[in-house]
Amino acid sequence: MLLSSAILEARSARVILSDLILAEEETQAALLEELAESGDQVIAEIYEAWRSGGVYTLSDDSGTRLLLFNEAQEWTLVATGEVVSLSEAEASAVEKERASRAVRKLMKSIVDTLGLKSVDERVRIDAALKLGLSQKPEYIEPLKARLETEPSKNVLKSIREALAISLLVNGEGDEVFGAVKELTSMKSIAARGFLEKLIRAEEKAGRLGSEVVAASSNALLVIEEHINMLEFFGSFFRGFSTGSVLLIVSFGLAITFGLMGIINMAHGEFVAIGGYVTFMVQTFFINTWGLSSSAFGWYFVVSLPLSFLVAAGIGLLLEKSIIRFLYRRPLESLLCTWGISMIMQQCFRLIFGAANVQVNNPTWLMGSLNFGGFNMSYTRLFIMFIALVVVIMTWLLLRKTNLGLHIRAVMQNRGMASSLGIPVARVNSMTFALGCGLAALGGSVLSQIGNVGPLMGQAYIVDSFMVVVIGSVGNLLGAGLSAMGIGLVDQLLQPSLGPVMGKITVFFVIILFLQWRPGGLFPSRSRSLDD
Q1: Based on the structure, what is the number of domains in the chain?
Q2: Does residue 278 form part of some domain?
Q3: In angstroms, rounded to a whole number, what is the distance separating the alpha carbons of residues 287 and 206?
Q4: Helices (H), 113-210
Q5: Is 69 helix (H, G, I), strand (E, B) or coil?
Q6: Claim to verify: residue 94 and residue 30 sit in the same structural domain
Q7: What are 182-186's contacts with CB under 8 Å, separation 24+?
Q8: pLDDT for 373-424, tens place per residue?
Q9: Across all residues in the chain, what is the average pLDDT?
Q10: Most Cβ neighbours (<10 Å): which of 43, 193, 261, 379?
Q11: Do 155 and 185 fall within a single domain?
Q12: 104 and 137, same structural domain?
């Protein structure tokens, strides 16, 4: 039903334009008024062609047809948009139509304000702000007229903001003062430059002590405080987001390094496995259903468990073939997994190429949530949700299942667990596979905020080791808290110190913390660590 309405509206706008182009001068005014009520974007396209000489008439036995020659070098009927074929004789017989100067002037106003009548709320917001920021007096009346009919509160706010910005230049006395007050109450960031320009104009005119200058100066202070608050909450949100990524990536390392004592330098490559599995699932969905289909959005939901299973399977194979011979041999495990890391990177390059590959966001992860002027992207929010799910599922696994009980028993005392009949070798295999699967889950999530490449996991490997060490080796609660702490401190320091000095400062704080508490946040007091 909505599609049918849209088609009817599009045809109506085309028909009006077709009548307008063919109409005599005395009847064009009524058609222009009728056209001004439509918000169809095809008006701008056809008008541009009409203005630049891309619209033609063809008169033959069937009557007069109005044709548009588009960029694809096709002839289309202006009234319907239907593609038609013309013979060479017909193509040579067409006559060019051009808009008169008076019509162009009136049409420009219609085209410029076309976005205010769009069915898309976002387009209406952008159009209102664009008109207001231009500060042209001819746009004040269309903005005021739209203010009376606009149903959306968000768009109404943008129209009021645009109108106030425009009145800073085009208003008289009380109107300017009222506009400044309006922008102050709205804490309009877009108005900051215009308010500064207004203050300079008042000073130049010798009205330094006027109430407009005082109100504008106060508005700038209010807006500056608002910007600082948004930057703080933005850093806070990015810190939680960064911490969530670190948490997902480091939980796998906390299991393999913290619970098993294996220094897995190939952990970053298992992160890359998750990214590449997501890329392959995306490619499969595109080849099967197409990029624009509704089914494409499900590729990411499918890729999350699939990434976990693929990496867990590879990790299980790696543990049974190599890792099981490296327990209680930390230096050998470090060197061996470093070699495995290099081999896996080269395999990625041979299979997928040396260049990074791109993973598209599904439509339901695009956009952001606006809260008090602060935007939170759906992608970052979803990463935080996945981190919460990982924490809950890992806790349930370790605390509520037999495998979790066996993992904790082997971690505390491997020899005693074996003497009690716990299959230590099987537990080791399953634990390593679990850690690799969690790393891949982190890689799948990371594919939504960056490209996938052979080295994508290397950017997080050092931070992940820091998370595990600060949180206390083998303590998942400590790993979670330290991941969030490192993410928050890093993002809160970057606005003032910059990304490089911010990272250096974080590492310096970590060193000082480990000097104070070498065992991390929750140091273990088990005697088994002395063995």
Answers
A1: 2
A2: no
A3: 69
A4: 121-134, 140-149, 153-170, 174-186, 192-204
A5: strand
A6: yes
A7: 183/219, 183/223, 184/215, 184/218, 184/219, 184/222, 184/223, 186/157, 186/160, 186/161
A8: 677 888 989 999 999 998 899 888 888 888 888 888 887 777 888 888 888 8
A9: 83
A10: 43
A11: yes
A12: no
